[in-house]
Amino acid sequence: MKSLKNRIPRPVGWNARRDCAVVIPIIREQGQYAVLFERRAGSLKTQPGEICFPGGSMEPGESPWEAALRELSEELLIQPDQAEFLMACDYLEIPAGFSVYPFLAELKGYQGTFSEEETEEIIKIPLQWFFDHAPLRRTAKILTVPEEPFPYDLIPQGRDYRWREGQYEVLFYQYEDQVIWGMTAKMMKSCVDTLQEEGILHG
To answer: Is the pLDDT assigned to residue 12 strictly greater than 90?
Structure first.
């Protein structure tokens, strides 16, 4: 039992999770930084047409940064050494049961390339704009809806059991005709907040 004292706890069900990692890529143009976003291809089954960061699911044995760098390279058609690691940002715990690990990285020599299989276009927004504009904030409810067949006879009150409701803050940025929302907006806001906390007040 003594050997258990140094055990590091993990999330319950950790081996069934498919955590994700993304890169918040920035490039320097004319003395200022711009953030790169992807618009997902309309042919994709998941979130077609939405604006996001390069990233995806972690493969077994990968660290979050390794997964983020792999996805970045595949989606933007760049070499891994073109991405300079700057910061591990605060990660998100998603109500659906997984985590997203974002990293801030500066791209060197990026020529606007991207994989057309996954991406429709690359969108550039000045980093300074996010320092100057607060996102719109709204709240969504999180409900528990048991799938059938569910053994209601095994729990108190059966079908009348009062499941606890949760709340989830949803953020929206609107830059010109582009809308960045949800997880992407929340990660962007958290990144900017961290930069400001570290004394970087401008983009």
So the answer is: no
Cα–Cα distance list, 120 to 17, 40, 76, 100, 123 (Å): 28, 6, 11, 23, 10
Q: For the whole model, what pTM was predicted?
A: 0.87
pLDDT, tens digit, for every residue of 24-73? 999 999 899 999 999 988 777 777 889 999 999 999 889 999 999 999 99
The domains located in the chain, with CATH, are: 18-197 (3.90.79.10)
Say how far apart CA 61 and CA 56 lie, in whole Å.
15
Gap between the Cα atoms of 147 and 39, Å rounded: 33
- Bridge partners, 27 (sequence order): 34
Q: Which helix (H) or strand (E) holds 122?
A: strand 119-126
Q: 54-77 as b/e, with b when 16 or more CB fall inside 10 Å?
A: bbbebeeeeebbebbbbbbbebbe
- List, for residues 177-191, the tens digit of each pLDDT value: 999 999 999 999 999
